[in-house]
Amino acid sequence: MLEFLLCSMFTLLPDYLYRRYRQGKRWGVELNPYTIWFELRWGITTCLILTITLITAIFYYHPSTTNVLSAFRTVTILSEGGGRVSKVYVDNNQIVKAGDPIFEMDGKSQKAPSHPPAPVL
Fold first, then answer.
1. Which residues cross the membrane (predicted)?
2. Number of folded domains in the chain?
């Protein structure tokens, strides 16, 4: 869109200013969208073609890759059962070795309730 606006600044605007102020034509009488299109049809069409060509070239030659190596490895850690974390043993960006504890889950939801036995009657 910016390419089209920039291109039209060099075609439409000078032509309008020349015909309006140099030739004395009035907007709505001698100047209307049809007369401007008829006089500048090749310039406007060239602007559109250049704009489409530029946008196509930018998107076609835009750098992209499918071979990416992440500098950091992120591993998702999930527990077998849901619950709250009661203690965290590591800090952010700390290196962890295999077998090191990372966090401790709160086991209250996994334990049986400790109610006193019901009296036998």
1. 43-61
2. 1
